[in-house]
Amino acid sequence: MASVQRSASSGSDGGDPSLATVDERKRKRMLSNRESARRSRMKKQKQMEDLTNETSRLQMANSQLLQSISAKEQAYVAIESANNILRAQVMELTDRLRSLNSVLQIIEEVSGFSVDIPEIPDPLMNTWQLHHQMQPIVASADLFLS
User: Fold this and answer.
1) Which of 79, 56, 60 is CA-nearest to residue 68?
2) Interatomic CA distance for residues 82 and 75, integer angstroms
3) Phi/psi of residue 13, each to 5°?
4) Which of 11, 12, 71, 114 is the most exposed place for a label (fewest CB within 10 A)?
5) What is the pLDDT along the chain (146 residues), one digit of tens a residue?
6) Cβ proximity of 46 and 55 under 8 Å
7) 64 CB contacts (<8 Å, ≥6 apart)?
């Protein structure tokens, strides 16, 4: 029994050299595995931190985009409202012009004088007549971010 204990405990203290090298390899492998596991944990922690930072950055960007969209929607509603007012004014002025033209026609018929009665273009049927050359519209992502 004493010889069994001696051979089991003599791994690195001068016993069987092949057992000593096996024990040394096991010890080195364990240290290597521990170091590899430590590096793996550190890498995973770094990845988590990076993903957390990226999430925060994307949430901020999303918030800014939502604010920008909201501002654009409010501006659109305001412009649409102003546009509706202008359309109503155009219709009112067109009706007035028709009334004045009918008065001019009556004057022309009664007096016999030739009166120049302008034609009333339908502003809702004609396309916009711009007095300058058409320029291409260039859009960029920066336009929507401000």
Assistant:
1) 60
2) 11
3) -110, 50
4) 114
5) 444 444 444 444 556 777 788 899 999 999 999 999 999 999 999 999 999 999 999 999 999 999 999 999 999 999 999 999 999 998 899 899 899 889 888 888 888 888 788 787 766 565 555 555 555 555 555 655 55
6) no
7) 145
Give the CA distances from residue 133 to residues 11, 129, 130, 136, in Å, rounded to whole numbers and listed in that order. Answer: 95, 10, 7, 10
**Predicted TM-score (pTM) of this structure:** 0.51
Give the C-alpha distances (Å, rounded to integers) separating 115 from 71, 94, 102, 112, 118: 52, 19, 11, 9, 9
> Distance (Å, rounded) from C-alpha 129 to C-alpha 90?
16
What lies within 8 Å, CB to CB, of 24 at 6+ separation is 12
Cα distance between residue 49 and residue 43, in whole Å: 10
- Please answer whether residues 95 and 128 qualify as being in contact, where contact means their C-beta atoms are separated by less than 8 angstroms: no
Both structure tokens of 123: 């502003």
Q: How many residues does the chain have?
A: 146
Q: Hunting for tokens 């004045």 — which residue is that?
A: 100
Which residue carries 């396309």 as its tokens?
127
Radius of gyration of the chain (CA): 44
